[in-house]
């Protein structure tokens, strides 16, 4: 039955619409755009229905929408499983089935159908976001994503070293304030793990204001910590700034050398 | 009557004062500077009179000032409508009438005269700010604005990709804290949309302090979110830093090649 | 009497110690270092004695120290007035008297002697800081300061444009929240000037937490404002990063071309 | 006895495992990795046991673990003292004994054994972190660390100048708010040192929210301070961004010129 030329033609057409690699046009194919919209709507729905004031009285409506979305995802999943062999890089349907994204798709369908899962289903639904990224990946953002990834990758060591210094400073600041204010504010600084909460809020300059030193020495140390925090933010920013500068320069140079290939891609 | 040479001369002179393109001098023309001052005074007035303690007892004074400003804007509007045909790029008065800035001018006049509009008039008055930007645009800031615009435009993809990652991280952080603290602090983390308010305040390092986690796991997740927020700030900063570096380098190179044209402009 | 060779020799020696331009050694002269230490001690003293818990019971001690410092500054002032004519760039003692720094010195002496000025004297005392900067200026930090000043100066237009955009966004955010939350929280958002306080705290990511929106729409707008604030911070950071890169590159190139002059300076 | 070839061979082998300079492999030696893990476990233990809710009822367990760790550190210390002479740069055991890191090791052992030291032992335990950095230093992060250190060192003057400006602005902002709100909020702004606490929190954009101005003038000054704070953060970020760009460029150039030496190191 699979040898029928009509079905083969249909499968080939569908594969070119579903698989971003096979799609010859620019950006995403119309079908993939529609799927992305459905996925985004599903994520929005999943987020909104956690709010009790919105869910109340609309449970059946949310349930029906979930079922509809689940059916659409199931259809798409089966279509991908059917057409995947058109892509030469996929050797068999079994290989496709065990690929990361196929399993993520399967998970998304299970989530959509598990209406009675309650809150636990929410985090699983975030898996859907990965699918959107996958769809977008080979489309319009590929060069931009590669630049950012390249910039971060080329400076992994520098960023890691500054992260290690960050942890050392964090623990040092927390220990200082634990020693200075541990007896005065036992609830906030009574142990190093507790003081670390304050140290994180200060070093990242978030400053919730739920915990802050009240003694003179504690405030001096907090001031030094806050200033150190700014320097700690400046270091990775500076590293990434120079990394981006290099990554984009290289991307441009490549573009100049291979204008035809990249023109098509961009 | 329009063919009289005296009126033509007057119109030409007025056009050269009103239209920044026709103005031969450096920066803004004296008339446009005066108009800009009036516009800024009008905006300041609009802002100040929303404060009840200032408005009280001075309602008639504010009303009179509004009327005066409205009359001045009407005069300017009519003058622009009369002189617009001097600019070769404007084909007819009708075309000028439907241009974005002419409609903004008309709106500003309507706002000034609608004394009884109340608060609703305030946001309309911000339209006036667009006019100031327009006046300044072709004057002294043109090169600087072009550099900034060029820098942002040339990295649109990279900024968009980092924005998408930002949204994903935002929703992920909100979902995590909704799952961890949703039952303990239902008012603050009882749903993902509610937890998103906390996530925005943390990722942007604003940290109002009205909402913050109180459990150990919640605080660990909040700490990771705050650190991620800093990295998320570092990425666009790094992208823009390299973009500015390129934009200004190019502007300088252009300057070297075409020194006469730009010297006049600068 | 001034023609006596002994006095002339003394004046010349003193001038070489007091005037950073005439001083032939590296950095600051020993006398200027001593003066800088006295100035810094004076500033520290001025700051500390504003604290009631420290001042109480030590009024006479603080008064005596102030008088001593005042006498030292008077001596220095007279010494500078006497020796200033040794510097060729100073034409006469009268010209020196009316120079910015000489007037600042005179002010500092008046402050030190005005023991009963109370709090008003504090801000005047900050004038002393300018003197320290002046002393340091021609010494060790000259190249670094020039690099920073050059970087800021070369991008004045870009920074000004981003500042103007900042003000527009600030007023826009304040107006939005005034319209949305003005009726619900009249104390915090009851007028645009009041809402501006919130907008400043949010756009700069300070986030005191004394004022924050409580409605859904207000929080969405606040989130957008916070994200915009980060972008607004990224723009000047990016501009300055590329400016520093250029300024330091130029300083190095100059160094290569004129190695002898700068080696002495560095 | 030391001349026995078996002992010599053992000592040589142990030295190559303990001393990162002698270790011929890439990264850290297996023994040093094990030691690093034990050190990290010891630090984690020291931090956790400050929390009363965790320590309670587990005192004997913590004490036993401390003793075990102390014994391991003592063993390592003696092993290092025995093998140190294998490294040609170490002239004698006495010299090694008085080196910074050997004394830090000795301190760490004393800390581990001083079970009854109480809280005071915590800060001493942070000395252990230095050891981890030392172990890691000559291993994988050496190039990255050198880049960061080189970037900071090459801009020491610029960073110092911006720090001095930062202190001047800090004191200026504190003085302004002391004068404006000192009488209204004596607890928060009653003296310059007290107002400095607010100024630090605002300039670093931490914004705890425990102290904030309530008058109109105070809020205007606070807004200016917050904006100045952002500029103050942008300056060192910009300096470091350009410094990293240069440091990494130079590291790459060196790499090109001396490919063999660095390939081994990287």
UniProtKB/TrEMBL annotation, chains A, B, C, D:
Subcellular location: Membrane
Domain Ion transport: 31-250
Keyword line: Ion channel, Ion transport, Membrane, Potassium, Potassium channel, Potassium transport, Transmembrane, Transmembrane helix, Transport
Xref: Pfam families: Ion_trans
One GO biological process term: action potential
Gene Ontology molecular function: any one: voltage-gated potassium channel activity
Single GO cellular component term: voltage-gated potassium channel complex
Source species, domain of life: Bacteria
Membrane topology: Multi-pass membrane protein
Cross-referenced Gene3D superfamilies: 1.10.287.70
PANTHER family named in the record: POTASSIUM VOLTAGE-GATED CHANNEL PROTEIN SHAB (PTHR11537:SF254), VOLTAGE-GATED POTASSIUM CHANNEL (PTHR11537)
Protein name per Swiss-Prot or TrEMBL: Ion transporter
Organism expressing this protein natively: Rheinheimera mesophila
